Amino acid sequence: MTDTSRAEYCVVACAEAWRGDGEILASPMGTVPSIGARLAKLTFAPDLLLTDGEALLVADVAALGERPRTVEGWLPYRQHLSLAMGGRRHVMMGASQIDRYGNQNISCIGDWARPTRQLLGFRGAPMNTLNNPTSYWIPKHSARVFVERVDVVCGVGNDRAVGPYHGLRRVVSDLGVFDFATADGAMRLVSVHPGVTVEQVVAATGFPLEIGDAVGTTREPSDAERRLIREVIDPRGLRDKEVRA
């Protein structure tokens, strides 16, 4: 198999966020992260726990939009919160704005008293970021999203963090992959997707971005991973609606 799409590179990058997590609940939000979590479980992270998105722990990996066939257990809301608050969950959320320390905004744009745009609201972002590992998926990388200062802090960044389970792992966008492995916890460019340059990423980022000595290229999925993505997990190609070439 050849001609890996940009969306498929993003899927692999999202999957890698859960590498080494062990038996932990994956909570992917968005099409590409959902494919990534399923890919991780089918390949290098077999102990990863998946849900049907509601109240069931599932043993099999169903294609997007299909019901799982094998149920492992019941996951009521109280138990879900228990996992989330004890560090046994790794969530991958979205962000309408994110800054260099990983503070996330999904509530509103503009002044809190008179916002220009009303968004989702805080939802579970504060608890997620303070109580369990958190990564982010941003399908359209731009300086309007990667901002110097978020208008409202929903997800808590490294400059505000408290609690033993706070941990920002990865940010995956349609341009590249980022982590926070710097002395002050600022965002760092780890890799760019094929066809993207470091200069493009810098130009599309609204804050000074930490750049290592050797920025890599996001790894390509193996033939087996491409087959799983295309034939088993996402045969309808929904990933290409979220990430366009």
Major β-sheet annotation = 7 strands, mixed
Strand order of the largest sheet: 1-5-10-11-12-13-14
* Number of domain units: 1
Low-confidence stretches: none
| Protein structure class | alpha/beta
| Overall mean confidence score, pLDDT | 91
Radius of gyration: 17 Å
How many H/I helices? 7
Explain this structure to me?
The protein starts with 5 loop residues before the first helix and ends with a helix. The longest helix is centred in the first third of the chain and has 12 residues. Helix 1 packs across helix 2 and helix 2 packs across helix 6. The strands form 4 sheets. A 7-stranded mixed beta sheet has the order 1-5-10-11-12-13-14, with helices on both faces. It has a 3-stranded antiparallel beta sheet with strand order 2-3-4. It has one domain: Glutaconate Coenzyme A-transferase (3-Layer(aba) Sandwich). The chain has 245 residues and is α/β, with parallel strands linked by helices.
Topology:
Elements: H1 6-16, E1 25-28, H2 31-42, E2 50-51, E3 56-58, E4 71-74, H3 77-85, E5 89-93, E6 97-98, E7 104-105, E8 108-110, E9 115-118, H4 125-131, E10 134-138, E11 168-173, E12 176-179, E13 188-192, H5 198-203, E14 210-217, H6 223-233, H7 239-242
Parallel strand pairs: 1-5, 5-10, 10-11, 13-14
Antiparallel strand pairs: 2-3, 3-4, 6-7, 8-9, 11-12, 12-13
Pfam families: CoA_trans
GO molecular function, one term: CoA-transferase activity
Protein name: Acyl CoA:acetate/3-ketoacid CoA transferase, beta subunit
